[in-house]
Amino acid sequence: MVSTISKGIIDPASVADARVFTWAMMAALFSAAVWVNIATWVGAPVSTTHSVVGGVMGAGIAAAGFAAVNWPTMGAIAASWVISPVLGGVFAAAMLAFIKARIIYQDDKIAAARRWVPVLIGLMAGTFATYLALKGLKKIIEIDMRHALAIGAMVGLAGWAITVPLIRRQSAGLENRRKSLKVLFSVPLVISAALLSFAHGANDVANAVGPLAAIVHAQEFGVVSGKVAIPSWVMVIGALGISFGLVLFGPKLIRMVGSQITKLNPMRAYCVALSAAITVIVASWLGLPVSSTHIAVGGVFGVGFFREWHAENRARRQSLGRPPAKRIAQEERRRRKLVRRSHFMTIIAAWVITVPAAALLSAAMFLLFNALFG
Questions:
Q1: How many distinct structural domains can be found in the chain?
Q2: Which residue from 52, 73, 219, 343 has the fewest beta carbons nearer than 10 Å?
Q3: Are residues 104 and 184 in contact, defined by beta-carbon separation less than 8 angstroms?
Q4: What does the pLDDT look like over 170-194, one tens digit per residue?
């Protein structure tokens, strides 16, 4: 069936009646749409995939009881709420630490950038090639992790070889200061953001329109199947929907994730984009159902908290040699936190309640639909 049901969220046999199944999927769609729009309105970047999963679970419970839900699968999804953002944050922080140590804090920053930026671009190209092979090409041809990694390695080496002379030319004449490094990371950042957006759409649009494809199949054939093909016009609706949503409601969340959680520059944003792709690959290898939204935001938090830790460490080392009057007070250090705690708590709370909130909305809508049109 569609991805949300083929993963075993609910047992199709428990809602074998096409009419009941149709209203259940309608309820899942409406509840996910309502919840995601509410979260967007309050400025919380929640997972569309988890909203749809919660909607399917709630409608399944309302239609066939708690026994219809595959609870081990739901447990794996719940575990991914914690595991995937933490992994994204750890990878992003590790990448930023590497860039600081190998490039930013080197005496000759331009020479270090010429050596390492092509390597980082090759790593980015290889990572995204592996990601797209796993998430995109495997829908056309059979690709396992070993072949996907081989594709990624070849693309990564090609990316490194192409960018070595480009970075050398671009860095010619640049001053030996941190601002120059932002120039060298601008192009990799734009490319990584575009590739991450492409991969996000390729992965999440199918989840969002999955219930609609299931409805179309049930109405066309009059039966509930364990596997359906998603019609092209349904995918077009999903593509148009995600594009219009980005144009109309995206700027608010872009400002939230890009600047209000913690300040991002091209190097930090590059770390976030790369960590998101790496985390998805690792999670796919481990068989964990993850959200690219959660991972990317986790990467932003990881970068922000690493900056806090790094700044406090430097301030602590510098304060050892200062007279007591010039040492920064503990209260002042707290005021200078680089991650806004209010946004952090809002986002975490929204993540925790996404599935149960979507499930409750979906169950209520299914009961309403069944009462009105059943």
A1: 1
A2: 219
A3: no
A4: 888 888 888 888 888 887 777 777 7
